[in-house]
From TrEMBL:
The keyword Kinase does not apply. Residues 1-24 form the signal peptide. Residues 139-187 are annotated as: Disordered. It comes from the Eukaryota. Keywords: Membrane, Signal, Transmembrane, Transmembrane helix. It comes from Seriola dumerili (Greater amberjack). The chain crosses the membrane at residues 281-301, 313-336, 348-374, 386-404, 416-438, 465-484, 490-510. This is G protein-coupled receptor 108. It is found in: Membrane. GO terms for cellular component: Golgi apparatus; membrane.
Amino acid sequence: MAVAQRGCVVAGYLLLLVLTGCKARIHKLTLENETRFAVDLNNFGFFANGTLDVNLTSLRFQSDQSVNYSTHPVGFSLSRSRVNGVLSYTAEETEVCPLTLKESTNDEPLILFLIDVNNLSVTMNAISAKDNILIAKPKAEAPKGQRKTREAPEENKPNTNIDVPHNEMNQKTKNPEPVTEKKDADANVPKVPVEAKKVEENKIYLEKTKKMTLALDKINDSYNFSFHMVVGLLAQGLYSLKFHYCKNRGPGVKLPYSFTVEVTERNPGGYLSAAEIPLSRLYICMAGVFFFAAMVWVYTLMKHRYSVFKIHWLMAALAFTKSTSLVFHSINYHFINTKGHTIEGWAVMYYITHLLKGALLFITLALIGTGWAFVKYILSDKEKKIFMIVIPLQVLANVAYIIIESTEEGSSEYYLWKEILFLVDLICCGAILFPVVWSIRHLQEASSTDGKAAMNLEKLKLFRHYYVMIVCYIYFTRIIAILLKVTMPFQWQWCYEFLVEVSTLIFFVLTGYKFRPASNNPYLQLPQDEEDVEMDEVVTESGALEGISKVKKTSNGRERQKESTL
């Protein structure tokens, strides 16, 4: 247990360090000297009238870079996919840079923003954009035709500083009507129509406008660009926003770049993605169900308190910790939806309870698998090694989960910790199966040697059931549920979390039922002394004491019960 205490202290220290950069659905990512050819900024499910704000600041390149941006473009790609992880174009897996695509391989919306630092412009290329609306600053330079028409009145305008003969002046004053008409026309144009025209130029209907040049601002050696997009009814779905530097895609020297980007996504109801909107209500409901199950379990323990072991109370603590963790998880999602970020105090409470829940889960499963407190009170050396491996790995897995939750998706360490979490979690799931296998093997040997085959066979049957339960739980929550998530539409991906929580509840209930502290539970009927067994056989065979009940002491010595000696 000392290992667990040290692990929890380290996890708590890392927790406080990690929470400082958590931004939830209002993202701010800063990359310095980055060399990746593609940076995954975010994935978000938009309903109709959802909005996306992207503000790129401080985009810098090395001063000695000589890159042909027509063949190796730089910019953003915004693509829609039906499910998470499935891009709307297949070029991501090929040697073709997505920014060079001229058409989409399917009907999914794909919007490209190509940054040209030489001309200080951003070319927007909308491929199957449907009814999305883009609001951005167009390039200030006007076409030549419009420039000449605007300059013509300036050239023909009379110069008031030039002396005019008196008779000509009188002639002009006699016919003032054309001048007043011109003044009225000039006075009426700039007021409302020009403002309306300016708004129309900034609002781009991507269903009609497929290509447009936007403005790119330059301050010192850095470039700035921003846009705002409103998702239409036909274009709603799961979108993936990425930054591409196509020069680094091929082999050769990787050119570094730096930038800071702020991304804010919203749906009509708040800041949560489409698949996350029901999660707050889901978690609070499941917290109530787990709390009710924990209370039923405590009532069962109090009813059979003389045959309760320490591990039964550990199972109760696990159920209450799970319920508390779900409550804090629900509160976190509520604040993310309303404010766009978590409240640090609630986030800390959730991460602490999540850490305790994960540690208690694997410790409890491993202890049940070894038969500790049920059959024996001393763990063997190889069983102790399992705990020395599982407990630190479980702490590491929870720390990885906390870092993933509080780190921006575009950072380089995000996917590293994600892979660590997946690998460590699989190792822990595999490690807890070893004690169950050892117990099954031990019971198989004992059933053929100690003369108490019936009792050991009952235990063997129970352990086999427990082994199948653990394997099914691991496969469903780690593999099958993820496959279901990939195949579901974007607005139904919350069902993945629902299936995981329901399967966890079923697993807890079945485990509690199999190892309940009841007198008719074959797993808790420990081997008796040989004299007791012989006496039972004599009493059973003889009819002299028929109808008489004898009081027998149970294996743990804390409960006395009557059994019929028929």
